[in-house]
Predict the 3D structure of the following.
Amino acid sequence: MSFTLPGVYPITDTKLSGLSHVDQVRQLIDGGATLIQLREKDLSPREFHREAEVALKLAHAHGVRLIINDRVDIAFALKADGIHLGQTDLPPAEARKILGDEAIIGFSTHNLEQARAASTLPVDYLAVGPIFSTANKRAPDPVVGLIGLSDIRVRIDHLPIVAIGGITVANASEVLGAGADSVAMISGLLAGGNAASRMRESLKAWKE
Ligand code: 3NM
């Protein structure tokens, strides 16, 4: 399956935004998002399933795709568009067996070695990060930086790369310039309110 990442890849965070997943999805769609990841580290699986179900209905009503973070079971149960997996989650090949060929599978990598290892796995895109320091990940890996990102880009040329970690409307252009196909953002879009207009501004920065 050949997959194209949108230039801006928003990820939900209920704590940071103070909003439910569905309300974040509504604002992000309003700002032009076409692919959104639901990321939840605190709710029970049952609560997350309930929220994700509503968010998925809204997204699909607008032709927007929804990726679930970590929880292959919830992605499968809801027929979400895909799953985003970290290094300690279910291996991508196992997720592929469960979710099938059509599912979008993304995989987090944090250095060149991991990106190289991931490049042979049945995944549709790689996330690389943290590019800059970030407050929104527990125990983040060492910063990759723009040079580290472009080094990975040069060596991994057959998979789309979304950069993540400390990316904002202000620095998105340089991250894209270093070779990322897409920029993932949490606080850059959701901290301080007005996610729709920040989403719009980020898309503008990507198009320029
Ligand atoms: N993953 P913000 S960094 C969820 O390095 C996540 O893989 C990362 O939040 C990684 O955009 C990160 O607010 C947090 O910096 C991104």
User: Anything to note?
Assistant: The chain has ten helices and eight strands. Residues 8-207 form a domain with the TIM Barrel fold (CATH 3.20.20.70).
